[in-house]
Write a structure and sequence with these properties.
6-stranded antiparallel beta barrel; about 550 residues; disordered C terminus; 4 domains; alpha+beta
Length: about 550
């Protein structure tokens, strides 16, 4: 048994070197296998979570939030603006009747109004009451009428000056129709004084118009000869000359019964009122905002848009916004200067079928910065990622513990045999390892009885090593190899020939067992054998044929 154990230990000593040359030790290989197994499971779990949409939950929630906000704002905006369109048409017809009556009382036709500026103040004075009624009835910031005439046709700039009235319901009371705050901004000052209306600092006697503005667009559209209900025009956000904030204007032409267009009337929805009506819920995204803007194809005109937000937006949106598909049904909005937003947009129905200005499309969009969307999505999936990472660390720690405990009895038994060189060993209770030592014991017993592999080797029945062929050439080769042994190695060799074990040789030569083992490796390598058993079998074969054990 002792010889078998020593042979086995020699093999064990070679294993670490082989493993080192090949890469990893036995323990590290098992640990690597367990870690790879854990990683494979974690990867499968990640794929399952991705497939289930867990990591896109934040994106899905954001999409639902934006859809709900936009649906609410679109529904309210379309309803409100369609109502205002109807109210504006009714107001236009009322003005048309009054203007025509006033002109007829003076024997003047609607087409001749421009030639009679002295009649304009009386006409405007009669328009005040319907305007105040409309202002109190509707959620608007102002009501106005602009006549296609001026009280001073002979002064410079008269061609761009138009008589009219502009009466405003000041913020923040525009939403409170029961207690309006009425202010006077355009029209004859005598009308304001007679009705005790507060005159704004931005007051002006008349409106200043210019070619291509809302007034001329509405006047030109009336030339189509359609009913006034299909002639109104929504003018995108801009600031009236002499005013101080942006506003959307509903522009309805005022047409007399003879077809003469005597002016334009309508309502104003300024930036403050639009914001108060349409600001999205910002409890989830602090920088979310709504935008109402003209749209042409896939481009929103942000320079003429109205915004509803809890923070300043217009400074960051001054040009066109290019709309394209993003992900999860959302759209990407990219400005000319590279700013990026994510959200949804929807075209509004601002005009009736076959309307003259029906080709002028509007869209409402609910947006938020793309960075905010990405941060929110990451935050929603961050907890799951942290949990998975913690699970991975725990699994790796478990793999280290399992690999250590699994190999501990094996390594303990091997180290015991390596250190003590004893015939007995502590059972590992691992069947394969215990069977190995039982097998070695049986092989050793067979060898001692002359029935094991050594017998076959001695009788020439097998050729497994240098000792299998003891002819003359082999003897000369063996003698030459013996000459390569150093003096210390020959001493150890001679003691082995005499039947001493490695432990006994260490005691005789007063050397450590590790030094003896080092000599063993060198002796086996120089003599071309792999174990003490093979060496002894070779020597017995030579002795049986009368050969010398070794040459001096």
């Amino acid at each position: 048994m002792r010889r078998r154990i020593e042979s086995f230990l020699i093999l064990l000593r070679e294993v670490p070197g082989a493993l080192a040359r090949g890469g990893l030790s036995l323990r590290m290989r098992l640990l690597a296998f367990l870690i790879l197994f854990v990683c494979a499971i974690m990867l499968a779990l990640l794929l399952a979570l991705f497939a289930a949409g867990v990591f896109s939950a934040g994106l899905s929630e954001s999409g639902i939030f934006l859809e709900n906000e936009m649906a609410n704002i679109v529904r309210k905006t379309e309803a409100d603006y369609n109502t205002l369109s109807v109210e504006g048409v009714l107001l236009s017809r009322t003005f048309a009747e009054q203007v025509e009556e006033d002109l007829a009382a003076s024997g003047v036709s609607a087409a001749e109004m421009k030639a009679h500026p002295e009649l304009l103040e009386g006409i405007l004075n009669r328009c005040v009451d319907p305007m105040l009624t409309a202002l109190e009835k509707n959620v608007v910031s102002a009501v106005y009428i602009i006549l296609d005439a001026t009280v001073n046709p002979r002064i410079p700039g008269a061609e761009s000056s138009r008589a009219g009235l502009f009466i405003r319901n000041m913020e923040p009371n525009a939403l409170n129709r029961s207690a309006p705050s009425i202010h006077y901004m355009r029209g004859p000052i005598s009308i304001a004084r007679a009705r005790n209306l507060y005159v704004l600092p931005q007051w002006g006697m008349e409106f200043s118009v210019s070619p291509g503005d809302f007034f001329h667009i509405a006047m030109k559209g009336a030339e189509a000869g359609a009913d006034v209900s299909r002639l109104y025009y929504w003018n995108p956000g801009e600031t009236l000359t002499g005013d101080y904030e942006d506003a959307i204007l509903l522009c309805v032409p005022v047409i007399a019964s003879d077809g003469a267009v005597v002016g334009v009337c309508g309502f104003e929805i300024n930036a403050m009122l639009f914001k108060m009506q349409n600001i999205p819920n910002n409890s989830t995204f602090s920088r979310v905002f709504a935008m109402l803007a003209p749209i042409d194809g896939d481009t929103l005109d942000a320079s003429r848009a109205m915004f509803a937000a809890s923070h300043s937006v217009r400074s960051n949106l001054t040009g066109d916004l290019r709309v394209s598909a993003w992900k999860s049904g959302l759209s990407s909005f990219v400005s000319q200067d590279g700013g990026r937003w994510v959200g949804l947009s929807q075209t509004l129905h601002m005009y009736p079928k076959n309307a003259v200005h029906g080709n002028r499309q509007w869209a409402l969009a609910v947006l938020l910065p793309e960075d905010d969307m990405n941060d929110y999505t990451l935050a929603k999936s961050g907890d799951i990622l942290v949990l998975l990472f913690a699970l991975l660390l725990a699994s790796v720690a478990a793999a280290v513990l399992v690999s250590s405990r699994y190999l501990a009895p094996v390594l303990r038994a091997i180290n015991q045999i390596k250190k003590e060189g004893a015939e007995e060993y502590t059972k590992t209770n691992i069947r394969e390892i215990d069977d190995l030592f039982v097998f070695l014991t049986e092989q050793d017993a067979d060898g001692e009885r002359g029935t094991g592999p050594e017998t076959a080797e001695i009788n020439g029945e097998a050729r497994t090593g240098p000792g299998a062929d003891a002819d003359a050439d082999s003897a000369r080769e063996f003698s030459q190899r013996l000459q390569t042994l150093s003096r210390a190695e020959k001493t150890v060799f001679d003691l082995y020939v005499q039947g001493y074990t490695a432990k006994e040789i260490a005691e005789i030569l007063n050397l450590s067992i590790n030094t003896i083992k080092t000599h063993n490796r060198r002796i086996y390598w120089k003599l071309g054998v792999t174990s003490r058993k093979e060496l002894m079998a070779y020597l017995r074969a030579r002795q049986a044929k009368g050969g010398a054990a070794h040459e001096e």
